[in-house]
Design goal:
The protein is mainly alpha-helical. Helix content is 49%, strand content 10%. The chain has one domain: Arc Repressor Mutant, subunit A (Orthogonal Bundle). The chain has a two-stranded antiparallel ribbon. The protein is globular.
Length: 79
């Protein structure tokens, strides 16, 4: 799979895990290094995925603490 699509795959997977309840508000996401290794992508690809998720308000980053899932009520719409 091309590198450019990798960030979308990561972002989609995180969003799916939130929707299914696998990830809950306040849960900490794996580090960039762990995500990088799990998806076999570059650091920049993971960063792009996290930027996208942050822009969609799915996650929030806290410097020195990590990346956390937000409350889906703030971003998820009813079908």
């Amino acid at each position: 799979m091309p590198e450019s699509a990798g960030y979308l795959r990561i972002a989609d997977d995180v969003m799916a895990d939130v929707r299914s309840g696998k990830l809950k508000p306040g849960d900490r996401l794996p580090s960039v290094a762990e995500t990088r290794a799990g998806y076999s992508v570059s650091y920049g690809t993971v960063q792009l995925a996290y930027v996208r998720l942050e822009a969609l308000r799915v996650i929030r980053r806290q410097q020195g603490k990590g990346v956390f899932v937000t409350d889906p009520k703030t971003w998820m719409r009813e079908p």
